TrEMBL record:
GO MF annotation, one: acyltransferase activity, transferring groups other than amino-acyl groups
Protein name according to UniProt: Esterase
Organism from which the protein derives: Paraburkholderia saeva
SUPFAM superfamilies noted in UniProt: alpha/beta-Hydrolases
InterPro entries (UniProt xref): AB_hydrolase_fold, Esterase-like, Mycobacterial_A85_antigen
Pfam families cross-referenced by the UniProt entry: Esterase
Length: 283
């Protein structure tokens, strides 16, 4: 093969197969609320390693589902590529197998909403070059993590400017048979008020005043699609701006790996919009 032909072949391969140079790290993030540390996966875009202290990045928090852990997203998807593509930091904390990302009234040892929504965010801002504002933070997750992401965003509107849910269990009252859910929510009969208060479908009105960039999707073959449609319909009735989609697929990693690409694009667009609208952008 002559030199010119080899050059063009290499160039073609580079253009059709981009080099992804993101960095993936495992960090231990302490929880004062639960008196222990939990591992988390942090993915940094390639540019992060070449930047200065002045170069800072928005952050997308990705929550795993029931029975999962902090390795799920990176093990089952090509999530790291999105860090490079959209120049964002991705954080995948450990939310316990069946925590539902709430501060449990039934189990005082389970305080995962405080951990993920407050302690993890504070740790990431302290140890990485983030843009530490609500306009540069997003949170999403799948299934139990979809519920958790919306719950945390609703309860902490000053922390997150964007939120999403993928195949989210937005009405935990329809998940009473889920193993372990009663341990954190309490008995559904005796603690019905708490279950009702935490259901995202019952909190749609809060999104009216939260001003959160919102994206929700679910597979048409997913058993959770009905509750997601209900949430969507209530948001429409209230006039709450949001992105909603139903796509072919069920409660599977094939669906989630596809969906997360749309959601991170949504968040990246939200970050750019908020940056353009900030006073500094017009100074």
């Amino acid at each position: 093969m002559n030199t010119a032909r080899a050059f063009w072949l290499i160039l073609t391969l580079l253009l059709t197969n981009p080099v992804w140079a993101y960095q993936s790290r495992i960090v231990a993030i302490p929880s004062a609320a639960m008196h222990k540390s939990f591992d988390a996966t942090v993915v940094l875009p390639d540019a992060y390693g070449h930047g200065t202290d002045a170069d800072r990045y928005p952050v997308v928090y990705l929550l795993h589902g029931s029975g999962g852990d902090y390795t799920d997203w990176s093990a089952n998807t090509q999530i790291g590529r999105l860090a490079d593509r959209y120049h964002v930091i991705l954080v995948m904390p450990d939310g316990g197998h069946e925590s539902w990302y709430i501060d449990s009234p039934a189990d005082p040892r389970s305080r995962y909403e405080t951990y993920v929504g407050t302690e993890v965010v504070a740790y990431i801002d302290a140890h990485f070059r983030t843009i530490a504002t609500r306009q540069a933070r997003a949170i999403t997750g799948l299934s139990m993590g979809g519920f958790g992401a919306l719950r945390i965003a609703l309860d902490r509107p000053d922390a997150f400017g964007a939120a999403g849910s993928i195949s989210g269990a937005v009405d935990p009252r329809a998940c009473e048979d889920e193993p372990g859910i009663n341990r954190v929510f309490g008995d559904p009969a005796r603690h019905a008020a708490f279950w009702n208060s935490k259901a995202i479908v019952e909190n749609a009105r809060i999104f009216e005043r939260a001003h959160i960039a919102l994206t929700i999707d679910c597979g048409v073959d997913d058993s959770l699609v009905a509750s997601n449609r209900t949430l969507h319909e209530r948001l429409v009735e209230l006039g709450v701006p949001h992105d909603y989609a139903e796509r072919p697929g069920g409660h599977t990693w094939e669906y989630w790996a596809n969906s997360i690409q749309y959601q991170v694009l949504f968040f990246a667009t939200s970050f750019q919009h908020d940056a353009a609208e900030s006073p500094a952008a017009h100074a």
